[in-house]
Amino acid sequence: MMTPLKMWCLLPLAVLLLLSISPMETKVVQSMSQCKGFLLHETPPDIPGVLEDGNIPKQDRYKVICQTYENVGRFVTLYDIQNKIPVFSAYKYKGEKGRKPECFWKIEPQLENKDNINMEDCNITTEYNNQASYNDYSGTYDKGHLFPLSYGFNEDDKISTYTLTNAVPQVDSFNQGSWRRMESCVKCILDKYCNGEGYLVTGAKP
């Protein structure tokens, strides 16, 4: 029988759905099962018409990204190349150390038919075919992290969160207000009741 403490440790997963870290040989893959270490029991969420029993019915629209920085897989994202927005990002929280890095927003080169398996800096003058561009956010919305910067274990993990494939458009008052408070609250629960470790899935519904 699950104890109340263990139930609390699983609660952030359910809360975030409502709104492992291992090297990868490739980045954009066909199945969630190819990005191991980021989902509890390696079990992805069920999203009707998008992700069902671990399978993606519309492979031409939804892409699995093993988010890779410096040749290390940091987290996994299911990305909608039609709407140019992530469906969700999944990651393993292991606590946090280090300061906020100075870095620029990145993109997933393989979505643009490039061979580079590592995320790379986005070109602010380029309109990308299969993912959001820097100017999509120009003066209108915040780039809202799904895998939060503050959840990155070390500096490289934090840098890896700065990819547009991990961001959704958020009104600044929401991103800097209730969204930030929710991130802080969930992190506090993980640190206090779950020994600083847990699996989280954060999604957005357009």
UniProtKB/TrEMBL annotation:
SMART domains: Endonuclease_NS
Source superkingdom: Eukaryota
Alphabetical list of InterPro entries matching this protein: DNA/RNA_non-sp_Endonuclease_sf, Endo_G_ENPP1-like_dom, ENDOD1, His-Me_finger_sf
Signal found in the keyword field: yes
Keyword Signal: yes
Domain DNA/RNA non-specific endonuclease/pyrophosphatase/phosphodiesterase residues, every copy: 71-204
Molecular function as annotated in GO: hydrolase activity; metal ion binding; nucleic acid binding
Signal peptide: 1-26
Bilayer-crossing regions: none
Family annotation (Pfam families): Endonuclease_NS
Keywords, in A-Z order: Signal
Protein name according to UniProt: DNA/RNA non-specific endonuclease/pyrophosphatase/phosphodiesterase domain-containing protein
